[in-house]
Amino acid sequence: MFEIGPALAAAARFWPAAWKVSWASLALSMATLVLALRFGGPAWIAAIPAALVARGGLMRIAFDLQPTGPGGLQVGRPEARLAAVWILVLAITALAVGAGIAWAWARTSLAEAASMSRGRIEVLNSWKATSGLGWRLLLAHLVLAAPLVAAMFAGPAGAWAFPLAEGAVFGGLWLPMTTGLMAYAWRTAA
C-alpha cells in the first residue's frame, strides 16, 4: 500500500545514488532548464530531451535496468519509451483539461439567457439550472458551430471572400441560432 512517509523516505534514499551515477545528465538537464526558463522558445528544444535523457538514466538506476552511459548520458529504447509515454500523457491530459473546460463552459452557457430574462447577473444560477444538461448543451453548441468552423477553414488564408463568408456565417447564422438555443434551453431548464 502506498504511504506518503515511506515514499518520501525512499525518494530521499534514492537522491545520493541518482547523483552519483547520473551526475552529467542531471547537470545537463538543470542547465538546459535554466536556459529554457530564462529565454523560453527554442531553448525548450534542448531542455525537454535533456530531461528525458536524465529521467531515462534515473529509471535505469531505480529499476536496475541496463547500465547507464557515462554520467547517466545515454539514449536508447528506455528513453524512446519514455518519450512515447510523455507524449501520450500530455495528449490525455490535454484532452481531459479540454473536456473539463468545455463541460464547465456548457454548464455556464445559459448565463446570458438567465441574466437577460431575470434582469440581473445570473452566472451561478445558470449552473444550477443546467444540472444534467452540460454535455447535451455542449453538443448542441458544437452542432451550431460547425458552419462557422467550416467557413473559417473553407478557403485560402488572406482571400477577401472568406472573411466575408466568416462574418456572414457568424453574424447572420451563428449569433441568432445560438441565441435561440440559449433562450429555449433556459426556458426549459429554469
Descriptive overview:
This protein has helices spanning about 5-40, 45-60, 75-110, 110-120, 125-130, 135-150, 160-190. It has about 190 residues and is mainly α. It starts with a helix and ends with a helix.
Summarize the structure.
The protein has 190 residues and is mostly helical.
Main beta sheet strand tally, sense and closure? none
| Overall SS class | mainly alpha
Q: Shape, please?
A: elongated
The fraction of residues assigned to DSSP E strands is under 5%
Could you state the order of secondary-structure elements as H and E? HHHHHHH
SSE layout and pairings?
Elements: H1 4-39, H2 44-62, H3 77-108, H4 111-118, H5 123-129, H6 134-152, H7 161-189
Features:
190 residues; mainly alpha; 2 domains
